[in-house]
Amino acid sequence: MRIFRDRAHLEEVLGGVTKWERTLEALRAGGRHLGVMYSVGDSLTTMRARTTAFATDGLVARRRYQCVLSPVDGDAAVEVAPVATLVPAGPYSDLTDRRYLRGDARRHTVRRGAVLVIGPDEAVRVLPVPDTTVTVAYVTVEGATFPNK
Fold first, then answer.
1. I need a labelling partner for 123 at 20 to 30 A (CA). Which of 66, 76, 141, 147 fits?
2. Edge to edge, what strands does the sheet with 65-71 contain?
């Protein structure tokens, strides 16, 4: 897990790599409708919605995509834990690339404008903060470029 203080910080650290440049473009995109999923091929999907739309009962891990979360108009609360310290709460789904887990997780606040990046070896739970909108992106873990773009 990494929390970047803002998008410029993410660009400073990971900029120059195609997948992170595309992720930054997606995070900056204006005019996106709430609750609508947008896609850049199979490598990147994004959605802007209230945190309540992303909230789950358990922690969620992904194998093929990293989760990137950036609050738009308030602070977001998340819980994060290493997958290795958790126990399965159900089977992995290849269709959704989700694995639900349970166990102890550490709570973090992601400030408005900051960017949280969750790796494939971590699980996250977005907590419902009704007045906060976030942009969530799922970015492929494979390679540094988007082969279909």
1. 147
2. 2-4, 115-118, 65-71, 133-140, 44-50, 37-40
CB atoms within 10 A of CB 23: 27
For 40, the token pair is 């850049």
> What's the CA gap between 75 and 107, in Å, rounded?
13
Cβ proximity of 120 and 45 under 8 Å: no
Mean pLDDT of the chain: 92
- Taking only the tens place, the pLDDT of each residue in 53-105 is 999 989 999 999 999 999 999 999 999 999 999 999 999 999 999 999 999 99
Distance CA 45, CA 108 (A): 24
Distance of CA 53 to the CA centre of its chain: 13
pTM flag (> 0.85)? yes
